[in-house]
Amino acid sequence: MKKTIRKSMIYLILAFLVLTIGISIDGYVSISMMKIIDSALEGNMTLFKSEAVKIFILIGLSLPFSILISYTRGLYIYKSLVKTKITYMERLFAKNINEFQAENNGVYLSSMTNDMNNIEKKYLEGIYEVGNSFIGFLISFIVIASVSPWALFIGIGISVASVVLSMIVGKPLQKHEKHRAELFEGYTSYIKEVLGAFQIIKANNLNEKVKDDFYNKSKDIQYKGYTIDKIHTYTLSIQQFIVYASTFSILLISAFMAIKGSITTGAVILIINNMGRVIFPLMNLGEWFPKIFSVKSLFTKLDHSLENHEDYEETTELNNFKNTIEFQNVFFSYDNKEILNDISLNITKGEKYLVIGPSGGGKSTLLKLLRKYFNPTKGKILVDGNDLKDLKKESYFKNISNVEQQVFLFEDTLRNNIALYKDYNDDEINLAIDKAGLKDFLKALPNGLDTMIYDNGKNISGGERSRIAIARGLLNKSDIIFLDEAFASLDSNVAREIENTLLDLEGVTIVNVSHVIFEETKNRYNKVFTVKNKAVI
Ligand code: ADP
């Protein structure tokens, strides 16, 4: 993820360039001020006039530069953050389905919200602030050094002590920030779960338990925030002490030098004026360095959660499924738990298969292998003679459709929900709707295909949802439709009707994993597989 941010470096360089010009103008203003004061004390009218003109020009320039400074700063943050978020999404959707599912969704949710916020507020703003402080320090440093090299030595002392100290004091922050990010992950998953279970919690009077759990989780996060703030305060207090001590030393030295006659009164005022511009950037460095370092562990965590551990290179394209899917002595285990043992079976194009068996027997696992969510532990699955393991996911997924118990609907029109944002004309969509048995449903909608579906289709029945999923598959001209307990929550008449619709589809291969079995439709399948005791009969 860090590499992505580096790609927006050009905006950072632009921001720093503008910043350098803006701060240099301020530096020139203070040198002109010194000359005006000295000209007043010496009664030198020529110097006074030329410096007064300069100062007006410089002040006039400083306004557009202040505007440019905030503009380029905003541009840098905006470009870097958008790029980071887009890269995160791209990498997230490059994850293998099984590896994505193995992780709690709360982790991704937390990364997209809390971690991105930390990247913006601590890393991106931090880098800009460090640059800003460094440039500000350097320019004021040159300005002071131009009148007193002694101040230069003291300045070096302050900067080295300050930065080293803030790094030492801020070191434990990394560990605490990492822990806080983990707590946020747990917290986000928990909130997601609680909101999802709202009805169950209310109906079972679990409000008190939820309240206690919520209290404990938020207390831990707040306490961690308190610990982090405490460390920040220590860092700042030590910084302040060093900076104040050094300020007075510089002040005493410059006053002493003025008494000795080695610098002018104007130079003393210049040193005092610029002291703040040396001190505050240093304090800023002390504040921002630990924040930037604390985000380092976040990048490692983000990269880790986006990694695909199984990194097998897929080489083959599948344009169309033509003949058979063949299981050749397939074994499958989750970790060390064997689910399928030496399975050999054939699925022929256009035929219909019912997969039944006891709960926990391995039906869904068999389907996951067919859907290429997992690869077999041993043995091969051949699709038209190609090893499924070698088939490129996108090219295989183009040929298959899935109908689940929970059909997800986007907050969009019925047309987009069926076409899934692909370019089909109304005739094609209507044909798929007819075949999927949605004709009457569509007729009853006042806005037809342009009817909006809100809130994951709250008002659309389970049967209609399944039919929408079937229509998606038909429109997509999928050669294979996999159903995973798609009828489990449907009324038996509706389930039977949809099953008949599917069994009537010519040329489409159907693999239906179901524990809902109707005797009259069961006979219409070409084969019934029973998954039991690690075997398929
Ligand atoms: P069925 O669909 O027949 O009910 P599954 O294929 O879902 O059965 O599960 C078969 C077995 O595999 C069950 O014992 C289940 O607990 C286990 N199992 C399923 N998914 C996973 C997983 N991701 N990790 C570990 N074990 C799993």
Automatic annotation (TrEMBL):
This is ABC transporter ATP-binding protein. It is found in: Cell membrane. It holds the Pfam family ABC_tran. PANTHER family: ATP-BINDING CASSETTE SUB-FAMILY B MEMBER 10, MITOCHONDRIAL (PTHR43394:SF1), ATP-DEPENDENT PERMEASE MDL1, MITOCHONDRIAL (PTHR43394). SUPFAM superfamilies: ABC transporter transmembrane region, P-loop containing nucleoside triphosphate hydrolases. InterPro entries: AAA+_ATPase, ABC1_TM_dom, ABC1_TM_sf, ABC_transporter-like_ATP-bd, ABC_transporter-like_CS, P-loop_NTPase, Type_1_exporter. It comes from Tissierella pigra. GO terms for cellular component: plasma membrane. Residues 325-537 form the ABC transporter domain. The chain crosses the membrane at residues 12-32, 52-71, 126-144, 150-170. It is a multi-pass membrane protein. Keywords: ATP-binding, Membrane, Nucleotide-binding, Transmembrane, Transmembrane helix. The keyword Transmembrane applies. Residues 13-294 form the ABC transmembrane type-1 domain.
